[in-house]
Design brief:
With 50 residues, this protein is an all-alpha fold. The mean pLDDT is 84. It is elongated. The protein has 3 helices and no strands. The chain has one domain.
Amino acid sequence: MIENIIQLLEIAKQQKWRGDYIDIALGLNKYPESIREGFKQHKRGLWHKR
């Protein structure tokens, strides 16, 4: 079951599906650990989103 969820998240990442729960599951709201990650989050508008 967990393997299915991980496979679906990989598909969602490749297809660039958007959604609140998908973004949270993919870890896109995490604190950026590099400048590149910070730029990607800022570009997507998730860095300042509450």
